Amino acid sequence: MRSLPARLMGKLMSLSALLCALLALSLVPGTASIYGATSGPGIPQVNTTPLAPKRQLRAAWLATVQNIDWPSKPGLPIDTQKQEYTAHLDEMQQMNMNAIVVQVRPTADAFYPSRYAPWSAYLTGTQGQDPGYDPLAFMVNETHRRGMEFHAWFNPYRVSMQGDINQLVANHPARLNPDWVVSYGGKLYYNPGVPAARQYVEDSILEVVRNYDIDAVHLDDYFYPYKVGNQDFPDDAAYQRYGSGSFAKKDDWRRANINLLVYELSTRIKQIKSFVKFGISPFGVWRNKVADPTGSDTAATQTSYDDLYADARTWIRNNWLDYIAPQIYWSIGFTPAAYDKLIAWWANEVSRSRIQLYIGQGVYKIGTSETTGWQSPNEMPNQLALNLQYPQVQGSIFFSLSSLHANPLGFKDRLSSTIYHTPALVPTMSWLPRTNPRSLTLQPLEQSTQGIILHWSDAPYNGTIAYVIYRFSSNGATQATDFNTGTNILTILPKLQNNYQHAFMDTSIQAGGNYTYYITPVDRLHNEGAPVRWQPVTQR
């Protein structure tokens, strides 16, 4: 049997006592709501009107640690690795998703040629072995070719999933700098309290920002590791050397170490490429209300602030991030950590900042009996419907891609056919630089027995990365044009950068139908130019 994803082990262990106590609870019958989902007694009712947001991040994590998602196993031929990745992208396109979050540095190793880390063993089976191509360059190119964003996901401090430093390749930075390394819970970590280790981590991430055309740097919830039993992270020596003179409590020093990493990364990323986004996906509970009256009404046995020393509130209030995506992997109404309560808490938390809120959705739990709710096919659709009730929530990231592929309780089918039934643009970020996309030149529409053909011209390499085509139809009456909903988006086409001429055929029209088409250019941060209209047409 395949082992549980390392990303989830800490969460499951930390909540195991609570989960076991709740396994016996029966599912609550519910009433119909949006997307055919259900809500039970005490669970907030959601809007029953289906919505088609024009802008919504729709992403999935692709985990490479332990080959969870990709490659399916180490040592595959190059062509097989590439085929697997492009198949993932094709599947995401079928679900109208617009971004992928790829783990490019799972354990202080790399899926690209690096000065700071050896080649990952998850590629070839042998740490340090060149796979014969640049996987990251290939993935970025293939992702952009489909008009999707590529978020490069880093685990900043995890060195190894095993605890013996001598099993690392001889030139591994951890072996060359053993004073940076801590062994804890059977794994190896860089010590966040050692300044040289923090500088190394930052430099290794910025190497990718400089060398690759990524859209975002993404960190997940692993800062200081999840606690193992009553064991304390063994960093007393580092605290005495670097922190005790300024911080009376070691916990405050630990949080300051993580805050400094986040602040410095935020600053340095923008100095190199001002358009590259920076996002973090913390554990879903910042603090419980019992520990802090401003915390959430939850009873998680570990929290981001108190146990991982990751103070998301400080990051938000200082606008160090472009987005935050808390992992809220519990069901609606789950007493120790209710999805509905946490959504409301995080929405309020970001409401006075510019930071965009996306939600980390635990699709891997669908169909399990881990906690109440997940055995219903309506749990995840109801969560997504609840998200739409909060304007602060601007999208979702699903963990993980292989779980989506498995189509648990038919969720992938519902996502593509109903929930994400129209395309959507990635939300814009007004504080990042925009390039005012130039207007397009349209040629007359053509009609054929297969459909209506749209032609337009645009200068190559002018900052435009995609086109949005809108279609409005009527039965002879004046056609209303609403550009603020996804309902009228026919398609979003990535731009072929070396082409002046572009074309698209609409094959979904009906004979005798009256149609008006508009097109807008889009820059790499998804800002739209002014719409340009073709002459209305009636299909013969």
Automatic annotation (TrEMBL):
Q: Cell inner membrane as a keyword? A: no
Look up the domain of life of the source: Bacteria
Q: Mind telling me what this protein is named?
A: Glycosyl hydrolase-like 10 domain-containing protein
InterPro entries, alphabetically? Divisome_Glycosyl_Hydrolase (IPR052177), GH (IPR017853), GHL10 (IPR003790), Ig-like_fold (IPR013783)
Q: Which UniProt keywords apply?
A: Signal
Question: What range(s) does the Glycosyl hydrolase-like domain occupy?
Answer: 56-369
Among Gene3D superfamilies, the record links this protein to: Glycosidases, Immunoglobulins
A Pfam family found in this protein is: GHL10
